[in-house]
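Researcher: Next entry in the queue.
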Amino acid sequence: MEDQSGILLESGTNELEIIEFDIHKSKFGINVLKVKEIINPLQITPIPHAHPNILGIIQLRGEVMPVISLEKALGLTPNGVQNPANEKFIVAEFNLLKAVFHVHHVSKIHRISWNNIEKPSELYDVDSSQVIGVINNPESMILLLDFEKIIVDINPEAGIHVGQIKKLGERERSSKKIVAAEDSPLLRKLINETLSMAGYENVEFFENGRDALAYIESLANERENIYDEVQLVITDIEMPQMDGHHFTKRIKENHRISKLPVIIFSSLITEDLRHKGEQVGAADQVSKPEINELVLKIDQHIL
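Model: Structure for this entry, 303 residues:
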C-alpha cells in the first residue's frame, strides 16, 4: 500500500477505511489515514536497553524508524504456528511521529461507518485499555486499536503533559464555555486539567460527536442566541458513532450554530490530511499532543 494522501473518501461522511490485520488468531484494525505504507519485513537493528516492546530500528528511504512488536504491546502469547512469509510491517504516521508496527498478517481493507463501531464495554474500557472501538463484522469481530496509547506506553514523553501550560505564564480565568468531544476517558481528564490550568474552566465533555452535536442543537432550540451559551468547540477525529469531521460538517451546515469555531485536536493532523479538516470548515487544526498550541488557538478563535 502506498501513500494514502489520495484516499477517495470524502471528508465529513462519517465513514472510514480500516486495514484489518492479525496477531496470532486475533483480528485488529488501524485507520487507513494513519498508514503510509505496508511493506515486507526489513532487517532490524536491535537497540541496547530498549523498551521490551521495541524490536529495534530500520532505515526506510533515508529515515530511521522504531519497529514495535504489537504482539508484545498487546500482551498476546503464541497460540499456534505462524507463517513468517505472511508477516508485514505497517509504516504509520500520527502524533507528529512515524513508527513501524510488526504484525503477523494483513488481510483486507474495510470501509465502514463510525455508527457501526461500538464503544468498548465498561468491563475493559479503562485507562489501560488499548482498544478504542469494536467492529462487529459479519465474518469476525475486529478491535480498533489505540495506537497513540501504545506509543505513549513506550515513551510517556510522546503524550500530553499538563505542565506544558506553565510555559504560557499567568492567565486570567475565563467564563466562556467550550464543548469538547473526545472518546478517551484519559484524554478527557488530561484536556480538562490542561484547559482549567490555562484559564478555561467551563468545559462540557462528550465521548463522541453525536452526543456533543445533540447537546449543542438542543441549546440552539431552547435559547435565542446559542453563542451566549457556547463559544467554541474542540473535537477529536476518531470517535465511535460520529467522527470529528462529520461533527464539524454538521455544525457548519446548521445555520443556527454555524458560526461556532471548531478546533480539531487529533493525532491525524498531518500535512497530507490537513485538507480534510479545511473541507468541513474547521477554524483550526492542532496535532496531539501539542497542547500549548491548542490553548493558543482557543485564545485566537473563541467568540
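Model: Residues 4-156 form a domain with the OB fold (Dihydrolipoamide Acetyltransferase, E2P) fold (CATH 2.40.50.180).
Researcher: Noted, moving on.
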